[in-house]
Amino acid sequence: MTLKLPIYMDYQATTPVDERVLLAMLPYLREDFGNAASRSHGFGWRAEEAVEKSREEVAKLIGAAGKEIVWTSGATESDNLAIKGVAEYYKDRGNHIVTAATEHKAVLDTCKRLEKQGFLVTYLPVDPDGRVNPAAVASAMTDKTILVSIMLANNEIGTVNPVDEIGQVAKAGGAFFHIDAVQGVGKIPFDVGRSRADLVSLSAHKMYGPKGIGALYVRRKPRVRLTPIIDGGGHEHGMRSGTLNVPGIVGFAKAAELCRLEMAEEAARVLALRERLRQGIEASVPNTSVNGSLAHRLPGNLNISFAFVEGEAMMMALKDVAVSSGSACTSASLEPSYVLRALGVGEEMAHSSIRFGLGRFTTQEEVDYVVDLVASKVKKLREMSPLWELAQSGVDLKSIQWSRH
């Protein structure tokens, strides 16, 4: 089998649409193109029926009921609706929100917006493995805490949080619990009952579905109320107005079904490939360190720092491999990753980190090619680095006083 370049290893940024998902969507782009809100003829009825069946399928993936699924345009909107919706509706109950320093920007920036409106937000630190300690959540909560928002799995370092334990803490303190589950759902088992989640953000394009369609799980018993952030025709029980993206919804449902049925087998295969990649790199490249927990981690994520190599130079050197440095959503800035800094990773090592994302269509040939490529490129880049030379000759770089002229 000949290797096809470029190689895609950025599955945490997005995933290709599975062929079976595309086939499920096609009829709703062509013959069954009706508006699900058109209740007066067959085109609308067929669209509405597809939407309701899809709700059940997406709900099944997380142990929920179809009526608890609200369609959105994606993860960012789901996070915004969950956090702003609860904050606005329950502001008479309290004005305090607890989240973590390593959350996705869609959560952090939403919380910052609420701070401007007078809400108080606690941004919890994480342990060196990148996980949130349930005890830290408990000690941060007050009688004014209305919401705890902690992600299932981190998009940059793949670390999985103990959400079931955090859910118990949130409930014991009388707060609502929101989980941004976008990176984890479909890759690792997750259940809304076990985690006691009230709100869960989901996105299709992270699980081999189309872009531009997401969902928010909103618990019905006991019922969680939200103030909508988009007003209009009262679609989605008034929580999210706008004409539904029927082909996207059908694609999301098919993607969710495939994940539910194939997750165990796929996770084992992807984990084996990731470990082959990690062990291959570690065996052939000295002075590397994996960021985040290896024990509690998404099967397809490897975030690794290469000492004495600049991340941007590394990305250029690996131009035939799609990987990311920092996180895709914020990589337009040259600041070192805020997630890695929260783990206590030093600025130099944070700058030299590369995220490899493996997934459904990654092959062993691709992994072996990338191991060899990384080894040769790191060697070349280090040979050009005066710091590497100093370190090799036993100089402690931290002890050097650099003078500014």
Structure, explained:
This protein is of the alpha/beta class and 405 residues long. Helix content is 40%, strand content 13%. Helix 3 runs parallel beside helix 4 (105-116). The strands form 3 sheets. The protein has a 7-stranded mixed sheet, sandwiched between helices. Strands 9-10-12 form a 3-stranded antiparallel sheet. It has a two-stranded parallel sheet with strand order 1-11. It is built from 13 helices and 12 strands.
Q: Brief overview, please?
A:
It is built from 13 helices and twelve strands. It has helices at 19-29, 42-61, 75-89, 105-116, 134-140, 163-172, 192-195, 246-284, 311-317, 338-342, 347-351, 364-383, 386-392, and strands spanning 7-8, 69-72, 96-100, 120-124, 145-149, 176-180, 199-203, 214-218, 288-290, 301-306, 321-322, 353-357.
Key traits:
single chain, 405 residues, alpha/beta, 7-stranded mixed sheet, 13 helices, 12 strands, 13% strand, globular
Draw up the topology in text:
Layout: E1 7-8, H1 19-29, H2 42-61, E2 69-72, H3 75-89, E3 96-100, H4 105-116, E4 120-124, H5 134-140, E5 145-149, H6 163-172, E6 176-180, H7 192-195, E7 199-203, E8 214-218, H8 246-284, E9 288-290, E10 301-306, H9 311-317, E11 321-322, H10 338-342, H11 347-351, E12 353-357, H12 364-383, H13 386-392
Parallel strand pairs: 1-11, 3-4, 3-5, 5-6, 6-7
Antiparallel strand pairs: 2-8, 7-8, 9-10, 10-12
